[in-house]
Design goal:
The chain is an alpha+beta fold. The protein is built from 6 helices and 7 strands. The strands form 2 sheets. The protein has a 4-stranded mixed sheet with strand order 3-2-1-4. Helix 1 packs across helix 3 and helix 5 runs antiparallel to helix 6.
């Protein structure tokens, strides 16, 4: 015969499972939408595996990104937010469910967000975006925001935006848009803006 504590634990587990099933049913149409989208995008590419990357900010897990194949490519990723799916376990389970529906093997990734991991030698607070001065012979040095992003197939693209032409916030926003459009984790706009403002205060000789 079970003790009172065991009965309480069993009832709690049952309630959690019922709530989890209800949440899964509610989100089923969205999961099917992910499956349809990714199946269409990967058609004919011969992809047989996927990775699930953890997306974190300031030590807090914000969600998981399902990435088809061995490289991060636009259209071949899907994001599963912790808040939307009601917790880390449910969000990761949703990502795994979509991979399973696509008959993909979950491969061992690098344990974090490959495309969203900042290089430790970079002076920028965000991966894929850098701030730099350009010395122009006919004018004062200009502060630019450079951005790189992966295209489908793994090819890297790069461009930059002048803060003189776009404004400080405008140049940063345009760079962020490029990263998001490529399926990269959302950069920390506030951190980039602080870094750019500091660079502008200190000047090109700092």
């Amino acid at each position: 015969m079970r003790t009172k504590a065991e009965r309480v634990t069993a009832r709690k587990v049952t309630r959690e499972r019922v709530a989890e099933r209800a949440e899964t049913q509610r989100l089923q149409p969205e999961l099917l939408e992910h499956v349809t989208q990714l199946k269409r995008a990967s058609k004919g590419l011969g992809i047989s595996s996927a990775t699930i990357a953890t997306i974190s900010r300031d030590g807090q897990v914000e969600g998981f990104q399902l990435r088809l194949g061995t490289k991060v490519s636009r259209g071949l990723t899907a994001h599963f937010g912790v808040k939307k799916y009601g917790g880390e376990t449910s969000a990761r389970r949703a990502a795994a469910a979509v991979a399973g529906a696509l008959d993909l093997r979950i491969a061992q990734g690098r344990g974090g967000s490959a495309v969203g991991r900042r290089n430790v030698r970079s002076s920028s607070p965000e991966a894929g975006i850098r701030l730099f001065w350009v010395d122009r012979s006919s004018a004062q040095p200009g502060l630019f925001v450079g951005v790189s992003w992966p295209e489908r197939g793994g090819r890297q693209r790069m461009t930059c935006y002048s803060t003189d032409s776009n404004g400080l916030q405008g140049a940063i926003d345009r760079a962020i848009e490029k990263r998001i459009a490529a399926g990269c984790p959302t950069p920390d706009r506030a951190a980039l803006l602080r870094a750019a403002q500091r660079m502008r205060r200190e000047g090109p000789q700092a």
